[in-house]
Amino acid sequence: MNGQESDIELFAQRLVAEVQNLYRRQPEIPALLGLSPEAANNPADLLADVLASATGGQSDSSNVRNLATVAFNSDTDGFRAAITDIETTARKNFEPGGLSATLLYSRGIHALLGHRVAHYYWMSAKTDLALALKTLFGRAFSTDIHPAAVFGQGIWLDHGLGFVVGETAIIGDNVSIWHGVTLGSTLKDNGTRRHPRLGANVTIGADAILLGGIDIGAGSVIAAGSIVLRDVEPETTVAGVPATSKPRTEASFTGI
């Protein structure tokens, strides 16, 4: 086990411990959310239980729970990416509560968990099941994420509402995305490059629209409300309709 894998295992153990402690202190919370305290003994089962409860009556939660349990226990990379998403979100979010609150209450995390489950079944050649799950999660979380889209780890999906991702999109590691973002096509492109590819450490502001098989370079920032139709160079800030390069002020999103 390398250092990164060891860190992820520690985060998973911390997550389980925090949730167990919360359930003991406030047993009304799992009861209110329809969560099983027994599922909190295992991190993969815990993720599946939270995802099932978050669907909010869109389906028989036991079906979602069973499918998600298989996915998180079978797909080691997907499970580790999900844990990294939770740790990243807890670290970047200003709200208190740590890992447990992030898992239980973050709609962005729930949408990411749903995509990782749907993607597992897509990659397992169960494409109709993956699309059915994508539809179910879309109803629950107000997203439309194609199960074939490739997500890295350490994704921060703030709120998640209105997030649209096309089939051939690729999202790199440690990307931060606000609500209402579209990674779509131009309807002119075809083949394997119809949707944007985001490099690592990209930040995309609310309601930005990125269209076509374009490359968004690592460390770049897309300002809120921008429409991006062309490649963006690494470490570049763009804004506007259509988006054009702007001087950089700070490394953080607040600098634009």
Automatic annotation (TrEMBL):
<dbReference type="InterPro" id="IPR042122">
    <property type="entry name" value="Ser_AcTrfase_N_sf"/>
</dbReference>
<dbReference type="Pfam" id="PF00132">
    <property type="entry name" value="Hexapep"/>
</dbReference>
<protein>
    <recommendedName>
        <fullName>serine O-acetyltransferase</fullName>
        <ecNumber>2.3.1.30</ecNumber>
    </recommendedName>
</protein>
<comment type="similarity">
    <text>Belongs to the transferase hexapeptide repeat family.</text>
</comment>
<dbReference type="InterPro" id="IPR018357">
    <property type="entry name" value="Hexapep_transf_CS"/>
</dbReference>
<dbReference type="GO" id="GO:0009001">
    <property type="term" value="F:serine O-acetyltransferase activity"/>
</dbReference>
<dbReference type="InterPro" id="IPR045304">
    <property type="entry name" value="LbH_SAT"/>
</dbReference>
<keyword id="KW-0012">Acyltransferase</keyword>
<dbReference type="InterPro" id="IPR011004">
    <property type="entry name" value="Trimer_LpxA-like_sf"/>
</dbReference>
<keyword id="KW-0028">Amino-acid biosynthesis</keyword>
<keyword id="KW-0677">Repeat</keyword>
<keyword id="KW-0808">Transferase</keyword>
<dbReference type="GO" id="GO:0008652">
    <property type="term" value="P:amino acid biosynthetic process"/>
</dbReference>
<dbReference type="InterPro" id="IPR001451">
    <property type="entry name" value="Hexapep"/>
</dbReference>
